[in-house]
C-alpha cells in the first residue's frame, strides 16, 4: 500500500512540474516552487523563495528613471542644488549683467559730471565774483572762472590783459564805457592839473578812444613817473576843444564808468548825469570789502581781481580797463541798486 502511494505521489509530482514549466516558465533569478509532502502523504505548496541577495522584493523597488537635462535645469532655476553646467552659465550671466549695470552707472555719472562742468564762455564776463561762484556752484566752477580771469600770483602783462580785456569781443561803443585821463602839472610847483591824455574803453575792455591833448598852459611838471607823459607826447597831441567835443559825444546817453571820475570830468570841463555815473571808488560794497573809505584803483584790483596794475608808470587805457572790469564784476547788483534807489526817490 505504501509503495502504491509513493508511486502515485511520484507521478503527481512529475505531472505538476511539467504543467508548471509549460504554463509559468521560470524567470531569471527565481527558483521554482517545490511541492512538499506533509506527514499525511498530501502535497503541500512550497513557499516562494524569490528573494534578492540584498533583501526581499518589497524592500528593493525598481530604480527610478534618470531625469532629463531640461528638468534638471528647471530645478536649478527654482533654487535646487546643482553642480552642473546650468549653474555655471547662470552665474556667468549674473556677472555679465552686473558689469553692464556698473558700466551704465559710470557712464551716467560721467554725463552728469560733464553737465555739471561750467562752460568757460559763460563764466568769462558773467558779472559774478569767482568767490561767489565757488560758494554757489563749487570749487571746479570757481577754478574755471579764475583761470579765465588770469587770477593767480606772479601775473605777467599778458595775463593782466587777459583779465581786463575779453578776447575776440565787440570793439565798438557799448551802452557802458569807462574813461580815464592822465594829467600833467601846471602853475607854481606843478600843483594844478590839466589833461594830457584821454582813453575810453567799451564794456569788454576794448579801447575805442585814445588821444593825447596839447596843453593849454605851460607844463611845469610832467609827472612822468606816474602819468607816463613826456614832452613829445603832448607836443603832437590834438587841440583840447576838439578832444573835449569828441569825448562829450561818446559819453552822451551812456553809462560812464571810472575811478574818481570827478577828477577826470573836471580837467575835461565836462559834466555827466549822476544817475549814469559808476564810480568804483565810491561804490559802497567795494569799500566794505577792502575796508577803506577811499580805496585806490590799485588796491581794488589787488583785492578783488587779484592782479597788479599801476606797478610803474600809469596807463590811462589800462586804468579804464581795470575800472570797467570791476564794474562788470558787480554789474547786475550795481544796476539793481541804482534802480531801487531811483524807484525809492520816485515813490517819495
Keywords:
348 residues; alpha/beta; two-stranded antiparallel ribbon; 15 helices; hydrolase; REX4_DEDDh_dom
Compact overview of the structure:
Keywords: Exonuclease, Hydrolase, Nuclease, Nucleus. By secondary structure, the protein is an alpha/beta fold. Helices cover 49% and strands 12% of the residues.
Task: Assess the beta-strand content as a share of residues.
Answer: 5-15%
Classify the helix fraction into a percent range. Answer: 40-55%
Q: What is the ordering of alpha helices and beta strands?
A: HEEHHHHHHEEEEHHHEHEHHHH
By DSSP, the count of extended strands is 8
Q: Runs with pLDDT <50, length 5+? A: 23-30, 46-59, 74-83, 114-123
Q: Given this structure, which CATH class of one domain is correct?
A: Alpha Beta
GO molecular function, one term: nucleic acid binding
Keywords: Exonuclease, Hydrolase, Nuclease, Nucleus
Family: Belongs to the REXO4 family.
Protein name: RNA exonuclease 4
